[in-house]
Specification:
binds iron/sulfur cluster; six-stranded mixed beta barrel; 743 residues; 32% helix; globular; alpha/beta; Dimethylsulfoxide Reductase, domain 2; Rossmann fold; 4 domains; disordered N terminus; seven-stranded mixed β-sheet
Length: 743
């Protein structure tokens, strides 16, 4: 065996010699890292099924291979998630791979400020030298990373392990902070573990479905299709300020005032308790904290809630009765709840309603958070950011010991300190505590709340590395070093969807140029950093999968019964928990059927707090509330990938638009198609007006996918989850006349 320095030299030399004159695969095929191997042993002509790389629904897509290349795809007919359906993004999954602006080579910024192509050897030397220099000058914790819910679980785990156990970082977080942190905190507080309890079959089994701050018609269209397949003629109830597409299709829509959901949920609990419409047996057997909760919500009368939520009192009583009458009531929420200044309390209030009424652990029930990104759940459990691997706690010595023993690491390499959340990391950049930042597969230059603050932060960093499929994202353009990454379809690994199903990514195409799978980039970093020896066993995605299965043993997310990728492929994905000895016949499973939870006493906890006013209420100057959200099922987040598809681009307006109510439009003398300026205290943008009765007076809506949107948003955060509250801030709107210059 070669000594590490020899091996490093050999790899570096080999890459250095070969790159630039040979294709990436030829250059790397024979490297000791095995970078160029094709893990998916594809036949030249075949159809193979893999999980979609966009959203957390986790549909499976059949990729059709001709002459060894993917030429088309179609939804997998017998996959338990999508059952032969796909949304526009899924159908267009291959388009982003062929985009002309793919990053095909590492790029390093020179002293003249220009980004230039370099080879992997030079890139890795710069990575190591610059970050080590930062650490020597400012301390190990002065380099941090921001990860993503878009890469595979194995990649997240390897990144988290290399960064924290190998490179000595303390702080790392993921863009899942922007979408799921609230649900994580609420599930942990109520159930003792981050455990969404449901299975998608519950969408078809409920007789009453309550969607809170969720618009599945647009955001999770395949889940909405599952609702449409529900044979029980269910009551479909939507709580949302806007008359969204889902609200239009619902049996009941309660158009509450922005962020009054917590008040409404408490009032509903009060009515249910007062009328005795609760499951006393379940409460006594399986919960704790009921008395304090009942006392808390008794003050939230329907009359008070009606005034604060903008509803009639009778509507609140009607809603309580609908919940009472349902035999199988399920509650579903997404970003309307999570992206709030009081998101955790709101999610806990939803969970409380299920605990009160015994709507949990049975078919068609549950407090069910729908996640966002394709691997948000994997990130929550295995990214090693704010949680230690396997949903553990960095602050818990027993947890650190378990991980060290399972991995064969010295315990001292595991930080005994929790990571800062995303906003705290950026605050650290602001105040000089963080000087080096490594951003992987996410685009905060577009997506961060009040994004112009992110651009300003860039100047405070001594070294910024961005690892992405494209060198053209708002964030990559700011980088000192860009590392070109493979995308979905160009690498293998697993992802975990909203219903806890572990599914498979497969490699069906080569990444362009010198782009590498994130997994291999992390391996390269480990080699060049000098900690590769620690990760000897982490040599392939599947080997890491097996390590993670070992790490999951005895945890609520135990999947030690999954033997490997072959089993996942055959089974159509497997939901955790799946400990050794599990029966593989169940394709759909939910949690808590036995009324036992992951808390110390096995009881779910009621939790409550005081509703708080909006962080930035409207006033005489900024008189409209800006709501943000998903605009169409054809757009995904910052459009980094969906913007590459000509077909998807035809399905939504190219220019940013703002929806406003007919009353506000009349007052402002604005008609649909007019150009207007939307201004907050932080920025001013130009947008096309769309006048629609789906908005209540006093509210406007702008889709989050446009570059301009987060110039306006107000940086408020949930105090527990640290999730940004994107959904409501104060703006004003005025018509722009043609002689005015653009904002
Ligand atoms: Fe992909 Fe989500 Fe669309 Fe399914 S719903 S095809 S997982 S983007």
């Amino acid at each position: 065996m070669l000594a590490l320095p020899d091996l490093l030299g050999r790899i570096g030399g080999m890459l250095h010699q070969k790159e630039g004159r040979l294709s990436r695969e030829l250059a790397l095929e024979d490297s000791p890292l095995g970078l160029g191997r094709l893990p998916e042993r594809l036949q030249p002509e075949q159809v193979t099924s893999l999980v979609c790389g966009f959203c957390s629904t986790g549909c499976a897509l059949n990729v059709h291979i001709r002459d060894g290349k993917p030429v088309n795809l179609s939804p997998t007919p017998d996959y338990p998630v999508n059952q032969g359906m796909a949304c526009p993004k899924g159908w267009e999954s291959l388009a982003p791979l062929a985009a002309p602006d793919r990053a095909i080579s590492p790029m390093l910024r020179g002293e003249d400020g220009v980004l230039r192509e370099v080879g992997w050897h030079a890139a890795m030397l710069a990575f190591v030298q610059r970050f080590k220099a930062v650490q020597e000058k400012h301390g190990k914790a002065s380099v941090a990373y921001i990860s993503t819910g878009q890469i595979t679980t194995e990649e997240m785990a390897l990144l988290g392990a290399v960064a924290k156990f190998g490179m000595g970082m303390i702080h790392g977080d993921g863009n899942t902070r922007q979408c799921m942190a609230t649900s994580v905190a609420a599930y942990k507080a109520s159930f003792g573990f981050d455990a969404p309890p449901y299975t998608y079959a519950d969408l078809e089994l409920s007789d009453t479905l309550v969607f809170i701050g969720a618009n599945p018609c647009i955001a999770h269209p395949i889940l909405w299709e599952r609702v449409l397949r529900n044979p029980h003629k269910p009551a479909i109830i939507v709580l949302d300020p806007r008359k969204t597409e889902t609200a239009m299709a619902a049996t009941h829509h309660y158009a509450i005032l922005p962020k009054s959901d917590l008040t409404l949920l408490y009032a509903l609990a009060g009515v249910l308790i007062e009328k005795g419409w609760i499951d006393n047996d379940f409460i006594a057997r399986s919960t704790s904290g009921f008395e304090a909760f009942a006392a808390h919500v008794s003050a939230m009368t329907p009359a008070r809630a009606a005034a604060e939520c903008g509803l009639e009192e009778s509507a609140i009583l009607e809603l309580a009765e609908l919940i009472h009458r349902g035999q199988r009531v399920s509650f579903w929420w997404t970003m309307g709840v999570n992206q709030s200044h009081q998101g955790v309390l709101t999610a806990e209030a939803i969970i409380n309603l299920c605990l009160l009424t015994g709507n949990i652990g049975r078919p068609g029930t549950g407090p069910n958070s729908i996640t966002g990104q394709t691997n948000a759940m994997g990130s929550r459990l295995f990214s090693n950011t704010t949680n230690l691997l396997g949903g553990r706690d960095f602050l818990n010595p027993a947890h650190r010991r378990e991980v060290a023993e399972t991995l064969g690491f010295d315990e001292s390499c595991i930080p005994a300190e929790g990571s800062w959340a995303y906003d705290r990391i950026l605050e650290g950049v602001e105040n000089g505590a963080i000087k080096g930042l490594w951003i992987v597969a996410t685009n905060p230059g577009h997506s961060w709340i009040h994004r112009s603050s992110f651009d300003a932060l860039r100047k405070k960093l001594e070294f910024l590395v961005v690892q992405d499929m494209y060198a053209t994202t708002e964030t990559a353009r700011l980088a000192d070093l860009v590392l070109p990454a493979a995308g979905w379809g160009e690498k293998e690994g697993t992802v975990i969807n909203s219903e806890r199903r572990i599914g498979l990514f497969k490699k069906v195409a080569h990444a362009p140029g010198m782009a590498l799978a994130d997994f291999h980039i992390f391996r390269l970093v480990a080699w060049y950093w000098g900690c590769a020896e620690m990760f000897r066993e982490w040599h392939s995605p599947e080997s890491v999968f097996r390590i993670l299965a070992r790490l999951s043993k005895g945890r609520p997310c135990d999947f030690s019964g999954i033997s490997g990728y072959g089993m996942l492929d055959e089974a159509g994905g497997v939901q955790w928990p799946f400990p050794e000895g599990s029966d593989g016949a169940d394709r759909e499973r939910r949690l808590f059927a036995d009324g036992r939870f992951y808390t110390g006493d096995g009881r779910a906890r009621f939790a409550q707090g005081e509703p708080q006013p909006l962080p930035e209420p409207t006033d005489g100057h900024y008189d409209l509330t800006l709501l943000t959200g998903r605009g169409t099922s054809a757009q995904w987040h910052t459009q980094t990938r969906t913007g590459k598809s000509a077909i998807l681009r035809k399905l939504y307006p190219a220019e940013v638009y703002v929806e406003l109510s007919p009353r506000d439009a009349a007052q402002l003398a604005v008609a649909s198609g007019d150009t207007v300026a939307v201004a907050s205290r932080r920025g001013r943008i130009r947008a096309r007006a769309v006048v629609t009765a789906t908005l209540q007076p006093g509210q406007v809506f702008i889709p989050m996918h446009y570059h301009e949107t987060n110039l306006l948003t107000f940086p408020a955060f949930d105090p527990i989850s640290r999730q940004p509250a994107y959904k409501a801030c104060a703006v004003k709107l005025e018509k722009v006349f043609s002689e005015e210059s653009p904002a």
